[in-house]
Design a protein that fits this description.
- The chain is α/β, with parallel strands linked by helices and 242 residues long.
- The chain has a single domain, classed as Rossmann fold (3-Layer(aba) Sandwich), CATH 3.40.50.
- It is built from 9 helices and 6 strands.
- β3, α4 and β4 form a beta-alpha-beta unit.
- The radius of gyration is 17 Å and the shape is globular.
- The protein starts with 7 loop residues before the first helix and ends in a 7-residue tail after the last strand.
Length: 242
């Protein structure tokens, strides 16, 4: 299951999974965006391998209902990619409490609720993979992002650690990927001087391609990665090294 599947990273991960012969539940909070992506997938989105579903992943009742639908109409979820989330570039003095809570709901609550809903079945099968889309901002406080976004990504890292420790004994790994400056429509709207500044500071002198993110997902969900859990893999071209 890939949440936020109509975003640039979600699309890349979904295509990778389909190419690897996974059956994929693809989620998005927007019906229009989800339908557009399914149409774009074309023949690859056959009903026996691709199950689109739209719901609010930050709402507990909606998540419970969605998981029940997936169980009834699709197939067991062995792999969960928590990719749903929103960006906020608002600085602290301009961040309202409503924005703060909304960013937390979309970026942290969604991952918690879906993991909580799907973990019991993974435990029963004694196998599972959860990969959370974290961010460089969670490790550095953000370079161009706002306080709410950076804080949620730090919280998502800690959620990754907690779920990994709790689930390891059941054959389930939980890891995160912390990318920075993926080539997306958002990055491409940055002013030219900001782009030039970022490319000067990123040692590899380019932005990350979405397919490179999907490649790390492929590695983490492999059966051969079963001894890796509770890790946040940096993917930032050397912008931050630890």
């Amino acid at each position: 299951m890939v949440t936020g599947a109509s975003g640039v990273l979600g699309m890349a991960v979904t295509r990778m999974l389909l190419s690897e012969n996974f059956r994929v539940v693809i989620h998005d909070s927007s019906v229009d965006a989800l339908n557009e992506f399914v149409a774009e997938l074309g023949p690859a989105a056959k009903r026996d391998v691709c199950y689109p579903i739209c719901f609010d992943p930050s709402n507990s009742e909606a998540v419970t209902a969605a998981v029940a639908r997936i169980d009834a109409d699709a197939w067991p979820v062995y792999v969960l990619i928590n990719n749903s989330g929103i960006l906020s570039n608002t600085l602290v003095e301009e961040t309202s409490i409503d924005e703060w809570r909304n960013v937390f709901a979309q970026n942290v609550d969604s991952a918690f609720l879906l993991s909580r809903a799907l973990l019991p079945a993974m435990r029963k099968r004694k196998w599972g993979r959860i990969v959370n889309t974290c961010s460089l901002a969670g490790k550095t406080g953000g370079v161009t992002t706002g306080v709410a976004y950076s804080t949620t990504k730090g919280a998502l890292q800690t959620l990754t650690f907690a779920l990994a420790r709790e689930s390891a004994k059941d054959g389930i790994t939980v890891n995160g990927i912390a990318p920075a400056y993926i080539r997306t429509p958002t990055v491409e709207t940055y002013p030219e001087d900001v782009v030039d500044m970022l490319l000067r500071y990123i040692p590899v002198s380019r932005f990350c391609e979405p397919e490179e993110f999907a490649h790390v997902v492929r590695f983490l969900i492999s059966p051969m990665s079963g001894f890796i859990t509770g890790e946040i893999i940096d993917q930032n071209g050397g912008l931050h090294m630890s």
